Structure formats: structure tokens, C-alpha cells
Queue: 3 jobs
Job 1
Amino acid sequence: AQKITQTQPGMFVQEKEAVTLDCTYDTSDPSYGLFWYKQPSSGEMIFLIYQGSYDQQNATEGRYSLNFQKARKSANLVISASQLGDSAMYFCAMRAAGGTSYGKLTFGQGTILTVHP
Amino acid sequence: GAVVSQHPSWVICKSGTSVKIECRSLDFQATTMFWYRQFPKQSLMLMATSNEGSKATYEQGVEKDKFLINHASLTLSTLTVTSAHPEDSSFYICSADSGTNYYEQYFGPGTRLTVT
């Protein structure tokens, strides 16, 4: 079974500063994908970044980077130069690449990020 | 880019009635669609996986007779909440898998259901 843990129910950051959102995972699958999604108050799920379990380099997408530490089973999201529009709920998720769980996304509990001006 | 729509975006219904929610992939064919349920300030919980032309696979604890899922075509999946009760009030989100890259899963905007 797969499990995603986000231990920060809420985080606060000052505008223009960087913030790290924590995510740890557990799986017995050798191949998997890790995702981060942003969910603003409107409810839509916005894809931010993806990291494959075999990727050697950490993924980056603009102001978002994923700090992937495979041995520690962690996949933290780093948002640089925070903006007021970054205030939202953030979910870490994992997707199995094979087996009976193929394709299914397992989500963490989420972290509510608030950016202060 | 790949777009998934949901209809309606919000619905209010009376207890005991049924409600149908549609999920459409607008510019790609979805081999698999997923239905999630989300309560306020909580995580998304997968309800079921549907593949075109076959029966949906429900997650443990999800009542298949209450949440009817039909994946009639490669662009349309429907979720029908039968005999809705106030505890069924929730945010329902679908996602669609194009099947080309396993990491590409596209989410619909969600449907907010309120049962009175």
C-alpha cells in the first residue's frame, strides 16, 4: 500500500521569501511518480511539478522545485520568491507505475500555505 | 493543453433524489477516469476508477449501488449519486488519464454537491 504524509497542516511565509512544504512517502513499488498540486479556494487542482522515482535530478518548474531524497523517502516542495497568489492548499501525491494500484493517485493530507504581504 | 470539464459545477438537491455529474475530456481520449471526493479542508479520497466500456472499480468502503459510475465513451464518464442524503454533500472531482504518459492526469474543476 502507498502512503503520503504531510505533517504541516498550515504554513506561513512572507511575500518574496522561499518556503518548503514537507512530504514523505511510503511504498513497496520500485517505480512510482511523485506530484505536487495546488488547490486554491476555487477547488480546481493545479498541477505544479512531477518527479519520477528513477529521475536522477530534482525536478524544477519555474519557481517550484522538488527536493527528492529517495533514501529518506521525502519529496519536499520548495517555492521560491513567494507571491500572494501562492496562498492555497498544497497536496503531495504519489502514483504507482504498475500493479493493481496502477494509475491511482494517493494524496497527502495537504498543507494550507498563507503568504503575508 | 488537455482540458477536462465537469457539469454541473454546483448542484443543490433534496434528500432522496438522485444527481448525475458529468466528466468530459474535451481535447483528448481518456482511457481511464477517476472520481474523487473531498470534504472541506481535507484530502482527496479516490472513490472509483472507470475504464471505457467496462465496469468501474470501486475503492474499499465506497458503496457501488449508491455511487453509480458509467464510462460510456472515451470522452465521458458520469457519476450518479442515488438517493442522496445530507452526508453525501461534498466536493466531487474527476480526473482523466490520456494513457500516453502515466504521469499526465488531468483534473476537472470539481462539482460541489449540497443535499438539503
Job 2
Amino acid sequence: EAQVTQNPRYLITVTGKKLTVTCSQNMNHEYMSWYRQDPGLGLRQIYYSMNVEVTDKGDVPEGYKVSRKEKRNFPLILESPSPNQTSLYFCASSSTSEDEQFFGPGTRLTVL
Amino acid sequence: GENVEQHPSTLSVQEGDSAVIKCTYSDSASNYFPWYKQELGKRPQLIIDIRSNVGEKKDQRIAVTLNKTAKHFSLHITETQPEDSAVYFCAASVGTGGFKTIFGAGTRLFVKA
């Protein structure tokens, strides 16, 4: 089954404790992206990747890191999480940046 | 910077009526305009998209129109049904090569039975 998976689905952590949210897709998509969703603000792009070893900043990259060592995986890293990073995070993948994006199930992160 | 504005933020219609959601974008180089539907507690899913070389696209009860000169595009849902109730997001590809995606803030659609 073609899909995008994310783990964990829910995470409660404390300020400053490094964490990684994993994202994996099995559709051989070149383009992958991370978004955060906050009430009234829609989906805001954090980082995107055009292909392996090619990543770039979206609209709200501060406080986040990503890597794309393999085509299928695109982890999101929060080196020192802060409460303003409490949000719902979605990973997405598509053939190109101008094609349908397939979203993962979301990760709800709470930073205390 | 680039942005996408979406209106209205909330829309309530009677079952069977039409619903229209409008978006404007700022990047004249944008070429791809998708619409996503997000049901409560679910992930966004594409319902229709349009590219800059097309002015209108229709898929059963859903249609999208694009006016590149005015830099706005709209989603039209006809004969609305209760299952159309959801949050709808418009988006646009922006930047050199269209590598970034900017989403509108969303429209919460209520369809009253």
C-alpha cells in the first residue's frame, strides 16, 4: 500500500530535550516536505527536499533541522525544543514540488 | 514575501446549496494551485488541482477556476452534502522552480442538513 508514515504519532517532551520525528514514504517520490499546522495559520512549510542530499528552508525553519540521506526517509530534528514548537506536524511527499502531496498521519507534539 | 490569502475563514451553507472559497496569491511565477480537504482529526488530502496553463477544471461536483492576471483562484462545490463539511486549504507553488508550497489559512465549511 502506497503511504507516508510518521513516528511517533504523539509526543510530550520538555524544553531542551532533543527529539526526532521520523518520516518515510514508499512511493519513490523525490520531493518531501515538513509542515506544521497551528489553528488559524493553516499549514506552514518548515523544510523541503527536492532529492537525496538536497534540502532547503521553507517559511518557518528556525529551530528545526532535517536530513535526506535516503530517498524514502526525511526525519525532522528539534535540537532544543521550546514551547512555541508545540504543534501538529505533517510530513508529505510527491513526485515533484508541483504535484499532489501525500501526507502522513501527523505527529502531535507538546513541549512543556 | 510570498503569501496566499484565503476567504472566508468560515462558511456555512444549507445542504444542496453551492459553496465558493476564494484565494489570492502574490508570486506571479506560481504555476501549480492545489486544493486540499482536511476532515476532523485526519490528514489533508488533495481534492482538485489546476495548473497555470488552464483556466478551469471540473471533477463532478467540484470545480476550480484560475485567473492568472488577477492572481486569484477559487474552489466551487455544487450540491453540497453533509460529508463536504471539513476544512479546505488552497495552496500555490512559489519561488524559483516552484519548489516551495504556501498554503492559505483554511476555510471551515459547515453543510447543514
Job 3
Amino acid sequence: EVLLVESGGGLVQPWGSLRLSCAASGFTFSSHWMSWVRQAPGKGLEWVANINQGGSEKYYVDSVKGRFTISRDNAKNSLYLQLNNLRAEDTAMYYCARDHVVPGVIWDYWGQGTLVTVSS
Amino acid sequence: DIQMTQSPSTLSASVGDRVTITCRASQGLSSSLAWYQQKPGKAPNLLIYKASTLESGVPSRFSGSGSGTEFTLTISRLQPDDFATYYCKQYNSNSALTFGGGTKVEIK
């Protein structure tokens, strides 16, 4: 069974940092692109970042470029998102998602999410 | 970036109704469009990709159509489990992915 479990969320002050983790199991982690997607309270979905199988390609939504860093450790079957210089507008549920085997960034499995709250 | 405009934002319907949601892209996507369903407090669930390919395990009452800049998601006969929010998402480029604003399907 494919399982994605996020952790690391919490309450952080503006300008603070957090590191989110996503533990993957039930599939060959190193064979899939992975993504982070977020959802502000009561709002829609927003793609944040994605990373290829080996970690050599990384892409970000403009609003987080230079502040967030996506990475992965295939030996540990884990995906990460380092969040720096956090702003109130980064408050959201953060989901990790697995890319489908078919071509294209299509997410067939999602974690349950981890909540990040940025507030003083 | 490609902008996705989804309509309507809210839809009131009854069990058994045929429901159609539209998604328009600001530029052509070929068929690089997916639909997701999200229920309150839960992660999204993939329904359709490549505009019209039904994901494994998704009921056949869901269907997708369109190409280029206009796409539709149709639920042929609405079931109680289908009351949820639906999002389209374009994936024309790996580096700039965008969602529509969502359509909440409510009980009439």
C-alpha cells in the first residue's frame, strides 16, 4: 500500500523557518517525481515545488523562490521542504504528492498533510 | 504562467442530476489537464488525467472531455458521495503548474 506521511508543521513566527518531511512507503520512491502542494485555510490548492527522481531538477512557484528548498533522500525514502523567511501568507496545509507513472505531473497519491501556521 | 478559470464556483444539485464543470485555460494545453476531487479535511483525490482518462478505481459516472483551452468534467448521475469540491489542474509544463479556483458541489 502506498503511504505518504508528512510531519514537521507547526506554529512559527514571521521570518522563521521550518523543515517539513514526507516519509514514503509501499512503492519505489526513487522512481517517482515528488511534489509539495499547499492549501491556505478555506482556499484552493496551490502547487509549491517539485523534484525529479534523482534530485537534479527542482521547480518552484514564484512566490516561494529563494525562500523554500525542496530536497529528497532516496536512501531514506523521504521528501523534504525547507521553509525559510516565512510569511503570514505561507500559512497552509502542506501536502506531499507522488507523481503518477504516466508522463506529466499528475498526482495519484497524497499524504494527509501537515499544517504550517505563521503568526506572531 | 497559464491561468485556469473554473466555473461555476458553486453548484447546487440533487442526487441523480447530471453535473458539468468547466475549466478554461489562458493558453493551449493540448490534453495536459487533470481533475481532482477534495472532501472537507481530506487530501485531494485524482479523478481524471490527460483530459479524459479515468484514473483506476474512479467510478465511470465521472468523465472528462476537451482539449486546447476548454475542458469539462461531467458527473452523469450525482451520488451522495460526490458532494465535494472539484479542481482542474494544468500540467503543460513541469515547472509551472496551476489549479483552477475550484467548484463546490452542494446538495440542493
